[in-house]
Amino acid sequence: MRRSMHAGLVELADIKKVVVSLMAEDMRFSPERLADGLVGANLLTPWQARKLLTGKAKGFHLGNYKLMRPLGKGGMGVVFLAKHSVMNRLMALKILPAEASKDARRIERFKEEARASAKLEHPNIVQAFDFSEADGKLYIVMEYIEGVDLHRAVVRDGVMSPAESLDAMIQSTDALAHAHQRGIVHRDIKPSNLLLRADGVIKVSDMGLARIGYSAGSSDSPNRLTGTADFIAPEQAIDSQTVDARADIYSLGCTWYFLLCGRPPFTGSNVAQRLAKHQTAPVPTVSAVRPDCPKAIAELIQKMMAKRPEDRPASAAELLPQLKRLRGTVAKGGDLSGRHISSRVATEDIPSPSSIDDSGPLKDSSTSTMSDSLDIDFGSLPPVDLSTLPQAPVSPLSTSQQFKNPSARPAAAAAGKSAPATTSGDTSQSILLGVGLALSTLALLVVVGITFYQLTKEEKKERPLRSMESGKEIVVLQD
Fold first, then answer.
1. Residues 43, 11: Cα–Cα separation, whole Å
2. 180, 122, 172, 125: which is closest to 150 by C-alpha?
3. Per-residue pLDDT at 309 exceeds 90
4. Helix residue ranges per DSSP H, 80-148
5. Could you give the C-alpha distances from 388 to 19, 24, 384, in angstroms and in order?
């Protein structure tokens, strides 16, 4: 409880409400049960609750933002869902990892990503709003997309229809045309960097490997491989510094193949084998896997994945009209707006990958040494009206049963419905029920009163100190 308050995640008044609800349901109390209640009341996210239960009280805030949960790992940093402390607006924060904060080259690349994103404003590109630094951490404030990336969409729901995949390609190509016209090459186009919103809109994300300008002079090392092996253009694997828009066209063709076939165009047991196949192996034919794919689509994918850059469309702007002309070759009404998007995908709280610092971006490797005793004054708890008190919501954080005998309540309910009471027994049963309810209420109030007395008694030992700072009176709570 104290950790959640020290972390600045919940207010005491909200904790009191949850405690009253939990104690009215079951007098047994534990930190895990309180965490379940706070999550069920939407006062904590499951990720925040897990961090608090492991002893973490730091790393939940960055600048003006409260971190809600990790979203994933991009080309240049860890991405967190965050809420603005004043505006309550959900944003995505891409944070440069702690190990990179002392690397001048990686810092410059991170800033270059921010500069590239600032030049792009398009309905199919994730928008960047700000670049800032807090507590020694550099981060980019970006638009939060409530949806799922195309890699997860295919893994979860299966391959796309030709019409759906064509819609995804048209939107993605439109976004890349906007970037290419401003001299920006993405260099890491792949299904996981194409986000699908619930309304069917595609958003191109992660400019972490983007480069401004097509000429030499990039901050990349000549021997550094940028891109993803399953979707990288042959020339990009050799020299990432000299690639142009046609490298994005190749990666987009590989992505299109994945959407239709459910796997990358080239496979291998290691990265070297896959890179070699991009260089030398014949481009696989989509129609061999998907006989329902129109011939025109299969041929355009072959052209986009040509080994030589000069054999591909020169830019996304040149490719876009070719894609739009293909709309007549596929069934109508098959765009992405009709594809089912599960709402849980955008909101589910999954454990962060091993690459994400589990203590949060504000590295806090030490476990909190705060006492687990609840030295909070609950003397001001509101009176408990058992007849109107709602049951504490059940949180997905805990899978354990809240009661020793989970079948007790259903059994009791069934017993209550068993046989109709006789008219002569109604009065006596009502009296006994009233006496029993009165005794139960009295016992509950006695236990609650004793608990409150013990808690408030501990509170008197440590009084808050008052201090002055810049003419303002500040109350400092000591542990």
1. 9
2. 172
3. yes
4. 104-118
5. 16, 11, 9
Q: Find tokens 């005998």 and name the residue.
A: 405
Strands (E), 45-89: 61-62, 65-73, 78-84
What percent of the chain is predicted at pLDDT more than 70?
Answer: 63
Nearest CA-CA partner of 18 in 6, 3, 9, 1: 1
Active-site residue, from 36, 167, 188, 230: 188
Residue 58 has what pLDDT?
80
| Residue recorded with tokens 């909190």 | 368
CB 87 within 8 A of CB 93: no
Instruction: For the chain, list the domains and their CATH numbers.
Output: 59-144 (3.30.200.20), 148-345 (1.10.510.10)
- How are beta strands 137-142 and 61-62 bridged, if at all? unpaired
**How is residue 197 annotated by DSSP?**
E
For residue 260, which of 203, 300, 225 has the smallest C-alpha distance? 300
Contact criterion met (CB below 8 Å) for 326 and 166: yes
- Cα distance between residue 1 and residue 373, in whole Å: 9
Give me the helix-helix angle, 295-304 and 245-261, nearest 10°.
140
CA 114, chain centre distance (Å): 21
Give the position of tokens 């020299």. Answer: 239
C-alpha 73/C-alpha 65 separation (Å) is: 19
Instruction: Give the predicted TM-score (pTM) of the model.
Output: 0.67
User: Each residue of 438-451: pLDDT tens digit?
Assistant: 666 666 666 656 65
- 188 included as an active-site residue: yes
- Compute the residue count for the chain: 479
Task: Report, as an integer, the average pLDDT of 262-280.
Answer: 92
Q: Quote the CA–CA distance of 56 and 77 in Å, as a whole number.
A: 22
